[in-house]
Amino acid sequence: MTAGRIETSDAAPAATAAKRTASVPRSAAIARAYSIADLREIARRRLPRAVFDFFDGGAEDEMTLHGNRAAFERVRLAPKVLVDVSKIDTSTRILGGPSALPIAISPTGAVGFGWPQGDIGIARAAAAFGIPYTLSTTATVSIERIADAAPGRLWFQAYILRQRDFTLRMIERARAAGYEALVVTVDLPVGGKRERDFRNELLDPVPLHAPEPARLRVASRLGPQHAPQRDAGDGEPHRLHARGDQHGGDRFVGRP
Questions:
Q1: What are the start-end ranges of the E strands in 60-142?
Q2: Which of 11, 70, 73, 221 has the maximal Cβ count within 10 Å?
Q3: In terms of pLDDT, which residue wins out, 15 or 112?
């Protein structure tokens, strides 16, 4: 992925302070989670298998997935000793703007399959902690809802789809909503062969040359809180949107 700022003539001013939201009481299991591995195990026990495997899995033999994890495990922080640590500052600047930590939330598709309006929860957490948030092209909450609910530093992921006018409309909506940057996905000319998802009937086994958004289908057996609906009325069959919008309608990031 590559990132770049959205240039506008009258862009909306960046939020100077994120709106802090009240903390949701944590479950006893979450309170006892002391690592990412603990959280993963809680998710494995709680989510339907097809949904967990979608979040947890990768393509084919998952060699790239394992390689990515191994690469992160090799990263080491260089310690500094005999320095004053009574006051520490983890803030930095990313793409010309402030960030409380040298990290940003990367785009994650179909978060709503795991938790209704999960995209909003993650965006609000990013805003509360002062780090950038990237909305996925295949999010289950609209571009505008995220901007309204989490007025922090917002970036938008853009797949370069065959329907270029559709891509440009999404980018324009992000610009109008005050998103400050694009994260352009350029490494997915074909969809991955996600074998776990095929076995769980989560993905249609359509030709691999089809773009990934065209291949995502949640089996109805997961229940209405997880099942996305295809939009049959707009002439763009690759677009998906999941149930759970608080206004009572179905939403997908590409839907105005």
A1: 92-94, 97-99, 133-135
A2: 11
A3: 112
